[in-house]
UniProtKB/TrEMBL annotation:
One of its GO terms (biological process) is regulation of mitochondrial mRNA stability. It is found in: Mitochondrion matrix. Residues 511-569 form the RAP domain. Its main location: mitochondrion. This is FAST kinase domain-containing protein 4. InterPro entries: FAST_2, FAST_kinase, FAST_Leu-rich, RAP. Pfam families: FAST_1 (PF06743), FAST_2 (PF08368), RAP (PF08373). Belongs to the FAST kinase family. It comes from Myotis davidii. Residues 40-70 are annotated as: Disordered.
Length: 581
């Protein structure tokens, strides 16, 4: 059945934009009388598995009944926490009608996916068989969206392929195929995961575009479908026009799906179209590639040149999006001076008019690219702006506040002439720890190996939250002989509040260990993303020697001895490089 549905979807997805109705799905189909006749013979008649040709005349549709108001039983279905609660609805005098029986099956399928041990007895339960018969008898009154989800649920419940109730639902889906909205067709295609490659093989570029945009709009990250689409984008030589390329880049960025060969093709095919793009399209495309952490130097150089060539007409919002994309990837154009002069010129009079959170984002991007000016730092660090983020505990508010800490650190560490204002000392205190993040394997192994080297708990700090908004994986203090010193005996100005103690010896070196996970790098690259370049720069400016521990070097170390020797060698190199300056 799934294979036949794939063939139908392949045809209908091509025509969905023209054939799918704009209004709500039909309630009772005009084909109900014919469909019921077909359903009774679908198990025995081979021809009944295929829908009537669209060229055959159809009866005039009956009027579409309004969607029924929510009833008490709908709430009971939604709140049910176990299969028994749902099955009891059949004998409770509720009189399941229209979508309700189908909704019970859908909810039952979801619960059983969480409790698979209950599936065997539920499928054999007489009430479940009664429920399936009720669904089959009411199938023509089920709405389109519910019908598609019902079919998927029945597949999940692993009913026999010859089940009359399953065949009934399949036949109804075939009858309604041309009436389904595009999102329902995409959902149906996703449900037939085994056949995704066959389905996509019949698509052209416009069909691929529509499917990807539909998935992105629903934030539906169907990996089998995305892999199949990516395979055919790489294998098929068909040309992709500008609109298709922009939508593909947007969809891949929105869904966060990485496929190197697809990105290479998109970047190469987009490059000749850049001169004809609008500033808004350039901003949108740059943003999409930044989400994907994919840096194509020729393409991004073309973006920068495009902005410069349209300096008078480019909107500040588009310029901000391009700037944020450049900062995420730590990209600086060849015409760096001209580009950032334009940025400062555009922002000079309009920075204060932007949304406060956007002001912080834009200045943070300039800090990453080492282009922030004192006047811009003053505009964002003024109390009138930053106080609104100090008590904001929402994820968005916390992200903005972290960027404010980074901006404050930039002003203190990289702009010695900066006279203020700065964030108050109370804002630099990390406060009570939030929910602990999951410890990564690299983080755990690094800490365990380093603890073995230190030989004492007082000779190192781990997960060190600094007043600059960055967290060090570890911190140690070495004397002139390369021996570890007890950190608690010495002052630590980078903590918030700074810890008291004596000044370390003049020859002592303070080392910070920074691990770089796979996600810290641009895609298929050993170049750090802009955020982590800024972190490393700030730690160096704060007086540390940095010991970098990238994931790709750590993965090559097999034994504990190798890991310990690796860290010792890294520390020696950091100290030697400092002494050689």
């Amino acid at each position: 059945m799934a294979g036949r549905l794939v063939k139908r979807c392949a045809c209908l997805l091509r025509e969905a934009a023209h054939l799918a109705p704009a209004g709500p799905p039909a309630g009772r189909l005009s084909l109900a009388r014919v469909a019921r006749k077909t359903l009774t013979s679908s198990a025995t008649s081979p021809s009944s598995h295929f829908p009537v040709s669209s060229s055959q005349p159809l009866e005039k549709e009956q009027s579409i009944p309004p969607y029924p108001e929510r009833q008490e039983v709908d709430e009971l279905i939604r709140k049910a926490t176990g299969p028994e609660e749902l099955l009891e609805l059949l004998g409770g005098g509720h009189g399941l009608q229209q979508d309700q029986a189908a909704l019970v099956v859908i909810r039952l399928s979801r619960l059983l996916s969480e409790r698979p041990e209950d599936k065997a007895w539920v499928v054999q339960d007489a009430r479940f068989q009664q429920l399936l018969q009720l669904v089959s008898s009411q199938i023509t009154t089920v709405w389109h969206g519910t019908l598609v989800k019902l079919l998927r649920s029945l597949y999940t419940l692993a009913l026999p392929a010859t089940s009359k109730e399953l065949l009934s639902v399949e036949q109804e889906v075939r009858w309604r195929m041309r009436r389904l909205k595009f999102k329902h067709l995409a959902f149906l295609a996703e449900s037939s995961r085994m056949y995704c490659l066959d389905l996509v093989e019949q698509f052209g570029p416009e069909e691929l575009q529509r499917v990807l945009v539909a998935l992105a709009a629903q934030n539906r990250r169907s990996l089998p479908l995305l892999r199949a689409i990516s395979y055919h984008l790489v294998q098929k030589p068909f040309p992709l026009n500008k609109g298709v390329l922009l939508d593909l880049a947007y969809a891949y960025g929105k869904l966060g799906f990485h496929q190197t060969q697809v990105f290479q093709r998109l970047a190469a095919d987009l490059l000749p179209h850049v001169p004809s793009l609008t500033p808004g399209e350039v901003a949108r495309c740059a943003k999409s590639f930044a989400f994907l952490k994919w840096l194509s130097l020729p393409l991004f150089e073309a973006f920068a040149q495009h902005v410069l060539s349209r300096a008078q007409s480019v909107a500040v919002s588009d310029l901000c999006n391009v700037l944020l994309a450049f900062a995420r990837l730590n990209f600086r154009p060849e015409q760096e001076e001209a580009f950032f002069s334009l940025v400062h010129e555009k922002l000079g009079s309009q920075l204060a008019d932007l949304d406060p959170a956007l002001q912080v984002d834009v200045l943070w991007a300039l800090c990453v690219l080492q282009q922030a000016r004192a006047s811009e730092l003053q505009a964002v660090l003024r109390p009138e702006l930053h106080t609104q983020f100090l008590g904001d505990r929402s994820p968005r508010g916390q992200s903005t506040f972290q960027k404010l800490l980074h901006i404050n650190a930039t002003a203190r560490l990289e702009h010695p002439e900066y006279a203020g204002p700065l964030l108050p000392a109370s804002a630099l205190d990390p406060g009570p720890p939030g929910p602990e993040r999951k410890v990564t394997p690299l983080q755990k192994e690094l800490q365990e190996t380093l603890k073995g080297l230190l030989g004492g708990a007082d000779r190192g700090r781990f997960s060190v939250a600094t007043q600059y908004g960055w967290v060090l994986d570890a911190e140690v203090l070495l004397d002139a002989e390369g021996q570890f010193l007890p950190l608690r005996d010495f002052v630590a100005p980078h903590l918030s509040p700074p810890s008291d103690g004596q000044l370390p010896p003049p020859t002592a070196k303070r080392l910070a260990f920074l691990r770089w996970e796979f996600s810290s790098f641009a895609s298929r690259s050993k170049d750090l993303l802009g955020r982590f370049v800024l972190a490393r720069r700030h730690v160096l400016a704060a007086g540390f020697l940095v010991v970098d521990v990238p994931y790709y070097e750590w993965l090559e170390l097999r034994s504990e001895w190798q890991k310990a020797a690796y860290l010792k060698d890294k520390m020696r190199k950091s100290v030697a490089e400092e002494l050689a300056k």
